[in-house]
Structures are given as C-alpha cells and as structure tokens.
Design goal:
Elements (H helix, E strand, L loop, with lengths): L34 E5 L15 H6 L1 H7 L3 E4 L3 E2 L11 E5 L6 H13 L3 E6 L9 H8 L5 H4 L3 E2 L22 E5 L5 E6 L14 H15 L5 E4 L19 H5 L13 H19 L4 E4 L6 H5 L9 E4 H4 L5 H16 L6 E3 L8 H4 L7 H14 L4 E5 L20 H6 L50 H6 L4 H14 L8 E4 L5 E6 L3 E6 L5 E2 L8 E2 L7 E2 L3 E6 L6
C-alpha cells in the first residue's frame, strides 16, 4: 500500500494518476469493485455540429474519463431507432444509428477503450423493440394467429365488439398498455401490448425465435469488443401467460416503476439470464478478460434482487434502494445494511448508484428548504457511496456538480412521459441536457464551433446560462472543485486495499451521523444534520467534501480518515 500521512490529502489534487491495472494482472473479476461512468451518448459530446452527441464525441473525450480515474464506461443505446424514447425503441440492434455514427466508428471507440484500459459496457434492451422494427412491421401486415404476430403479445379485445383492451393494465409511461391496430383489410382488429409506449411493443419471450435473435445480438457486440452489457428492465421479458386483469392496474403508471406482479418478475426470466451467463462465460474462457452482465433489477427488496445474482445468473444488478432513499441517514443505513447482507450471500458485490439518465440529479433531489444545501449533500453522498464495498456507477456530469434543469420550455421537452401524460411529473429531460465542456455561453463546447462556412446546430436540448459555472474546463482548473474530489476518491479506491473487498462495520457516531469502517484503519462519516458535529475520528481527514477542522464535521459533509487502531 502507498503510505499517505494523515491530512496530506484534504485538498484535492495531491495525487498523481491512478496505477494502470492490466487485464492479465487482475487477481479477481474486474467488475467486482469497478467504477463505471455512464455516457448518455446523445448529450455527451457532439463531434459533427448537428447538436446531438455521437460516438466520435465519446472517443474524443476518453482521455477526460481516464484522467478522472474511472474503470470503464457504459453507453446508453446508440442503435438504429426512430428515437421515440431516444434509443430505447430499437429498430436494428446490430447497426449504429447514423445520428450517432457508424459501425466503423464504434470499432475505433472500442479499440481506443482497450488502449486506455477502459472497459466498455453496452446497453441491451430485450423487453421490447421499436414499432419500426422489421418484425413488428411484418406482424402488422400478417393475420391474427400468424407466426409474425407470435413474436409479440397480440390479443383480441374484450367487449361485444372487441373495442376494449384485452386486460386492464396501464403503461409505465402513461395510458393503457394496449393499442388497437387496423388489420390489412382496413378493419379494426387485434390489440398489442406495450408496457412503456405504443412505439415500444413488448416481445413475446415464449417464442424461441426471440431468444435466438438476442443471442445473435450479444455475440455480435462481444465479437466487436464489448466487455459486457447493462440489461434494461431485467425483470421484464415474460408476462403472466394468461394476461389476466391486475388488482392494481395503475401501479406502474402511478409509480413509474415495474410494480405490476403480472407483468414483471416472472420466474421464467431466470432461465434467460442463465443462458446469457453461459455466453459471457464462453467469451471469458477464450481470453480471461471477463464479460459482465449488470441488470436493471427493480424489485422491492435486496433479498428479491439477490435472486437475480445467483452464481449462474447475472454478475451484478443496480442497488436502486440507495438511490431512492433520499437524504435520510436511517433509511440509507437500512438499505446499505440490507444490500450488503443479501447481495454478499450470492457471492456477488453490491452495485451502487445515485444518479442515472432516468432520475433527478442529486444536487436538486437532495435540496431541502435551503436549495443551497443540495450540492453539498450530493457531494457528501457521492463520497459515502464511493467508500462502500462493491462497484459504483456515476452518471455523466455528476462530477461537475450539475443540477437538474427544471425550466425547459414545453415545446423542447422530448420525453414520451410528457407526451403521454401532459404532465411534467417524472419527466427525464432535465438530467439529459448536453454537458458543458468549455466557454461562457451555450453550447459550452458541446458542439464544435462553426467552420468552413458550416453553422453548428443548437444542442438538441437547450443549456441554461448557469452551466457556465459547471464546465469541465472550469472544474479542472479549480483544485477545489467537485471534479477534483471525485478524482481524489477514485484514486484512493485504486490505492487503498481497505476499499477493495473488505467488509463494512458501522460506528455509533451520534444522531444524524452515518459512520463506518472498512478494513483496518479506514473510516468514513457523513453528517446529515444542519449543524456541525464532533467528528468520530481525531485528526485531519484524508479527504472531505467540506472544510473539516478542529475535530468538527460540518453540516452536509462527508469525510474519509485513515487512522491507527484505537483512534476512533
């Protein structure tokens, strides 16, 4: 271990670049304690001036991610899509949408990741496809009961004329979960199931052709350098075979989550993940590099989540219970304890996240009556998360302290939830506004400047003027910025063995304070109170999200200490 005197790392910027860990040198699977940076490609960096981020823009900023110190990146969908849900309505799973680049550009990106020792995780969306997918277009042209329709959930309507949906389910993004089609002869006909929007018809995974197609898709991208997959709605795919009415049909729509027990979390789905695991294990056996399956598993408890992490199923799944716990120390302690207990029993490691492309950013989400408290709380929570055992996922821009953009004009909102509900409740565009890189005014370096007489298109979502205070350029130049705090924390994760596989033990540090040890000598504490408290450890912190002095831990602040036995 690199020896670091207590107090020498309070101010960011004291450490050099984290050590490179070659694939062959890893003593355990790379993903167990990795920190992965989520890239929402559309909003990351625009290379060609069309106002939309692309794969070439991602490749250009890989040195930025390497300098930050992450272990890899997860790309949101960049496949061919009509963009009704910005890539989660896929029309061709093995082609790059021209707005994002080409397959050759993906290959260049994958090669660059390999050179920089950055893992590359891709999004895969197996629950549904686009209404523009060739399979669905063929189903619309085919007859009821045909093999083409068997690939989806088509059913006759209820009522005397079949004019009511087959059951009472509601879609997560608003409205009925069924839409009626016009048959090829021009008459009103069957209905099809879509648990999100009508542009995203659900696949019928009981038809073996669906599984065979997704095996082809996985192998296509694994052959081209993917190190793993984040699985969208991993509790989906199968529905109750009889498609009966729900006792709480509006549950999904009300919660914006996969709650309907008839539509999600069916037992048959585990066989799919076992088969996908064999595919990944096959590729791992070829070169020893390891391939990852990380699931979006939204279930009520960590114990239920653990069922997806059995030794022959998914490697990891996101622990959303921490993300949803709010700025609440008791709740956070409970969900951390439950996750560490139940997930560890599977042999996997917990996968933490506080932000993603579907959630209000933490500086806004954690703000109390005093809106200025949000940024401090977000940074403290991130420092706590990065001290927990297991893996962590960061969402682009959180290292810049970006808040949620709440005042997007109605005419600019693209989220289908807004279109389906006529409400801003639950819309996600505010966390998807393009990143600010440089300069003092939009587009803040997101798009290239005009050149050769070609005018750059404005970003697909407008950036607020206050993004000038959050540019990457400004953050890198300010040694006290949130960016440098993240970098310090990531470097310490690479150098302190206590932040590897060691366990966590809670410390009683008084009301409103969460404190724990990791291994021998590492302590993390977070003050959730609105007043300073005595720190649970003597001495100057190794790293802190606020200014700690004289044994005081300020309000809304987290700190790390490295101490000798008996000093706490």
């Amino acid at each position: 271990m690199t020896s670091t005197p207590a107090g020498s790392l309070q101010r960011p910027g004291a450490l050099g670049a984290p050590p490179v860990r070659p694939f062959a040198a890893l003593a355990r699977p790379w993903w167990r304690d990795a920190v992965i940076y989520q890239v929402y490609v559309r909003s990351f960096r625009d290379s060609d001036g069309d106002g939309i981020g692309d794969l070439a823009g991602v490749r250009a900023q890989l040195p930025y991610l390497k300098r930050l110190g992450v272990d890899g990146l997860w790309l949101n969908p960049f496949y061919v899509s009509p963009q009704h849900d910005h890539g989660y309505d896929i029309a061709d799973h093995t082609a790059v949408d021209p707005v994002y680049g080409t397959l050759d550009e993906f290959t260049r990106l994958a090669d660059a990741c390999r050179l920089l020792d950055l893992r590359l995780v891709l999004d895969v969306v197996p629950n549904h496809v686009s209404s523009g997918h060739p399979w669905f277009r063929a189903a619309l042209s085919a007859a009821p009961g045909s093999p083409e329709r068997d690939l989806f959930h088509f059913a006759d309507g209820t009522g005397p004329h079949g004019d009511r949906p087959p059951n009472n389910w509601r879609a997560m993004f608003g409205g009925p979960a069924w839409s009626r089609i016009t048959e090829p002869d021009g008459t009103l006909g069957q209905w099809y199931l879509h648990l999100f929007t009508p542009e995203q018809p659900d696949l019928n995974w009981r038809d073996p052709r669906v599984g065979a197609e997704f095996e082809r898709i996985l192998r296509f991208w694994l052959d081209r350098g993917a190190d793993g997959f984040r699985i969208d709605v991993a509790t989906g795919l199968f529905k109750h075979q009889l498609l009966p009415d729900s006792l709480d049909p509006e549950a999904d729509e009300r919660t914006r989550d996969s709650v309907n027990p008839l539509a999600w979390n069916q037992p048959e789905v585990h066989a799919i993940w076992r088969h996908w695991r064999t595919i990944c294990d096959e590729y791992t056996a070829r070169d020893g590099r390891g391939r990852l399956l990380v699931g979006e598993v939204s279930v009520p408890t960590a114990a239920e989540q653990a069922l997806y992490l059995r030794a022959d199923e998914l490697h990891q799944s996101f622990s959303f219970h921490l993300l949803h716990s709010g700025w609440n120390p008791e709740h956070m302690r409970t969900v951390i304890t439950d996750a560490l207990r139940d997930i560890a029993a599977t042999g996997s490691t917990t996968t933490w996240t506080l932000n993603n492309h579907d959630q209000v950013r933490t500086p806004t989400r954690y703000a109390g009556p005093d809106p200025l408290s949000g940024p401090a709380r977000a940074t403290a929570a991130a420092l706590m998360m990065l001290a927990l055992p297991g893996a962590a996922y960061l969402y682009q821009g959180e290292e810049l302290g970006l808040p949620e953009v709440l005042d997007l004009p109605d005419e600019m909102i693209t989220d289908p939830i807004f279109r389906r509900t006529d409400s801003r409740v639950g819309i996600r565009d505010g966390c998807r506004v393009p990143l600010p890189w440089t300069g003092a005014e939009p587009p803040f370096g997101f798009s290239p400047p005009p050149r050769n007489g070609i005018t750059t298109t404005e970003p697909w979502l407008p950036q607020p003027d206050y993004f000038a205070a959050h540019t990457a350029e400004r953050a890198l130049a300010d040694g006290n910025s949130v960016w440098h705090l993240y970098r310090e924390a990531l470097q310490l994760r690479h150098t302190l063995p206590q932040l590897g596989e060691s366990s966590l033990s809670w410390i009683d540090a008084g009301p409103g304070v969460l404190a724990f040890t990791r291994g021998e000598g590492f302590v993390c504490a977070v003050n959730f109170n609105d007043v300073p408290v005595s720190a649970p450890v003597r001495g100057t912190p190794l790293l802190a999200s606020g200014h700690c002095a004289d044994g005081i831990l300020p309000a809304d602040t987290a700190a790390w200490w490295f101490v000798e036995p008996g000093d706490h």
